[in-house]
Automatic annotation (TrEMBL):
Residues of the GST C-terminal domain: 22-154
GO cellular component, as recorded: cytoplasm
Compartment(s) where it occurs, according to its Swiss-Prot or TrEMBL record: Cytoplasm
Family: Belongs to the GST superfamily. Theta family.
Protein name, entry field: glutathione transferase
Subunit (UniProt): Homodimer.
Superkingdom: Eukaryota
Classification via InterPro entries: Glutathione-S-Trfase_C-like, Glutathione-S-Trfase_C_sf, GST_C, GST_C_Theta, GST_Theta
Species: Chunga burmeisteri
Length: 154
């Protein structure tokens, strides 16, 4: 939950880059955290549900046209994410990682776990992912995403 993340950042006085005290940087973080619910989270989760969970629950294969529509919806918000939030910056709020980057990448890993490599044809997005992974630490990143990345084995 976004509320819990913000609470933890404040309570434990995390390093400033996670939830910046600079008002403009904080506004960028807040803007993304508000936008992502119905965009990145909404469309990424929809793809995951449609491609992985519904076929598991119903035992029926997914109609290709259904998957195409859901994938296109995700592609639209990915383009908006790159153009509006990443622009030409290393991270969403500027030169350092923030909670916005962490939340964004976690949400984007759901479609990846469903077998849709959304980074493959998006070099800007792939490079941003690499920076976020490096900032968090690759072993921790892999551990945190182990469950979602293994769902395709269901």
């Amino acid at each position: 939950s976004i509320a819990i993340l913000l609470y933890l950042a404040r309570k434990f006085k995390t390093p400033d880059h996670w939830y910046p005290s600079d008002l403009q940087k904080r506004a960028r973080v807040d803007e993304y955290l508000s936008w992502q619910h119905v965009n990145i989270r909404g469309k990424g989760s929809k793809l995951f549900l449609t491609k992985v969970l519904l076929p598991l629950l119903t035992g029926q294969p997914l109609p290709p046209e259904k998957l195409e529509g859901v994938t296109e919806e995700l592609n639209v918000v990915l383009k908006q994410f790159e153009e509006k939030f990443l622009q030409d910056k290393p991270f969403i709020a500027g030169s350092e990682i923030s909670l916005a980057d962490l939340v964004a990448l976690v949400e984007l890993m759901q479609p990846v776990g469903a077998g849709y490599d959304l980074f493959e044809e998006r070099p800007k997005l792939a490079e941003w992912r690499r920076r976020v992974e490096e900032a968090v630490g690759k072993p921790l990143f892999q551990e945190a995403h182990e469950g979602i990345l293994n769902t395709k084995n269901l």
